[in-house]
Amino acid sequence: MHAPDFQDFQRAFAAHIRDPRRSPRPPGVPARRMAVYNELLFNNLCGFLDACFPVCRALLGEKRWRRLNRTFYRDWPLHTPWFRE
Q: Angle at the Cα of 22 (from 5 to 4), degrees rounded to 5?
């Protein structure tokens, strides 16, 4: 059974949001608009992580901390839309 087109689009959109270097931008979405989504969502996650783990951030330094945030954002298998879960 084939997923409806909007579900294919959602999967492609989410894959690109989570890993823009390896997943192509969905067809029909302008690069500038996609960049806004990428930045907003990643920065939102970083804000949560920065607030929850200030000691880790300080110990790792900004560059390593952001790389860890990106890896988490890209690789963590999400099972719920609720951040605390």
A: 10
- Do 81 and 26 form a contact (C-beta atoms < 8 A)? no
Angle (CA) 45-62-12 rounded to 5° is 35
Torsional sign, CA 82, 8, 26, 15: positive
Give the pTM: 0.77
Q: Are 8 and 28 in contact (CB under 8 A)?
A: no
Angle, alpha carbons 27-33-36 (nearest 5°): 130
pLDDT digits (tens, 9 = 90+) for 22-72: 999 998 999 999 999 999 999 999 999 999 999 999 999 999 999 999 999
